[in-house]
Amino acid sequence: MRNALLTLLLVSTSSLCYADAAASAQGPGVMGNILMLGGFLLIFYFMLIRPQSKRAKEHQALVSNIAKDDEVIVNGGILGKVTRITEQFLVIAIADGVEMKVQKQAVSASLPKGTIKSI
């Protein structure tokens, strides 16, 4: 009888040890998953969305500050001097007697005055 009780005690103790190991092997709970998702969203915001919105604001400021006789570079790499400005378009002189009409959004950079003559 004593051996039976001792065996029962050993079996029940060993099964409790395995039960604790199995319970601790579970992954993170719902809260852990929500925190991880929130962390990914923050990283996504600061790495992609925020820098893109800053660049868009800078470009909008550049386009809105274009004035006549400014020297600009358009997206195709063409340099020119602004001769006329309409609501959505610019007319730029790219050579003597050669003018080209482009959208305002196509301007990629504004150059200091005199840059085209120095090239």
Automatic annotation (TrEMBL):
Subcellular location: Cell membrane
Keywords of this entry: Cell membrane, Membrane, Protein transport, Signal, Translocation, Transmembrane, Transmembrane helix, Transport
Top-level lineage group: Bacteria
Signal peptide: 1-19
Main location: membrane
GO cellular component: plasma membrane
Keyword Glycoprotein: no
SMART domains: YajC
Protein name, as recorded: Sec translocon accessory complex subunit YajC
Source organism of this protein record: Candidatus Berkiella aquae
